[in-house]
Specification:
Layout: E1 9-11, H1 20-32, H2 38-57, E2 68-72, H3 76-90, E3 96-99, H4 108-119, H5 132-142, E4 145-149, H6 161-173, E5 177-181, E6 203-207, H7 212-215, H8 220-223, E7 225-229, H9 235-240, E8 255-259
Parallel strand pairs: 1-8, 2-3, 2-4, 4-5, 5-6, 6-7
Antiparallel strand pairs: 7-8
Helix pairs in contact: 2-3, 3-4
């Protein structure tokens, strides 16, 4: 089955692409004026990410419990990936979770997502954890689908430290399917620059609106198929910020496939 046939098509010409700073402003107004919480938007992102992972992976197979691997960073991007892990567990999958650092370093909303998973019995690992060096290579080797939620649109400069270690290992393992949230880790949203250590995604689910760095510069090869997910931003916010967003952008569902302008 062609997974991409599941998603309605929209041309990038129809939708304004925004910078990282403009996305921060959309998020700010959504929280401060509309009263949306980061958790609400994270839930919407995580559910759409889980839907895409399900569509690419196929039905859960009890004999392949490790086929889904979730890589989650410390920020909101990681929180969305953790929310996706919970939805996938609810749908019968057995995802494994690798954090980029100890749970105590997660942001507030991401820590909530991790707490829920922990209460449900899922135990994450991370670089520096006792079992990490032993278990992480096997996790990668057994993964048919990897969700990349390590770094979001705030990246400035090359990946460093444990995040770079994880991405290098992912590149070496060459997982069959990699789905990135918002932007492949190692791609700088502002410029579209792709650093030497960067995720090469099968598909990227960017959120709310496409980001300029994903459709300009050298990013296309790392992004793979570009999908756009609804996180619940009210249309009036786009109007207030003078962003000409079609009011029916998500009329056919919460995920659309973006295709280059012809």
């Amino acid at each position: 089955m062609d997974q991409l046939a599941l998603y309605p098509l929209r041309a990038t010409l129809e939708i304004p692409a925004i910078s990282a700073d403009e996305m921060r402003e959309v998020d700010r107004v959504a929280v401060e004026d509309a009263g949306l919480s980061l958790l609400q938007m994270m839930e919407n992102a995580g559910r759409s990410l889980a839907l895409i992972a399900r569509d690419y992976t196929g039905p859960p197979d009890p004999e392949l419990g490790g086929q889904l691997l979730i890589l989650a960073g410390r920020g909101n991007n990681g929180g969305g990936a953790l929310a996706a892990a919970r939805h996938l567990r609810n749908w019968g999958y057995a995802p494994q979770v690798v954090l980029s650092g100890p749970p105590g370093q997660l942001g507030e909303a991401g820590a909530v997502q991790h707490h829920i998973l922990h209460k449900d019995g899922l135990r994450a690992t991370w670089p520096g954890a006792t079992e990490f060096d032993e278990h992480f290579p096997a996790m990668l080797a057994g993964a048919t689908t990897v969700i990349d939620g390590l770094v979001g649109y705030g990246l400035r400069g090359p990946l460093q430290g444990d995040v770079a270690l994880i991405v290098d290992a992912l590149l070496e393992a060459a997982a069959p399917i990699v789905i990135s949230l918002d932007v492949p880790s190692g791609v700088e949203m502002a410029s579209g620059d792709v650093y030497s250590t960067a995720v090469v995604a099968t598909a990227t689910l960017t959120l709310a609106l496409p980001k300029t760095g994903l459709i300009e510069g050298d990013a296309a090869a790392a992004v793979g198929e570009l999908l756009l997910g609804d996180i619940g931003i009210p249309n009036y916010i786009y109007d207030r910020l003078n962003l000409p967003v079609p009011p029916n952008l998500f009329a056919e569902g919460p995920i659309v496939r973006l295709i280059p302008d012809s």
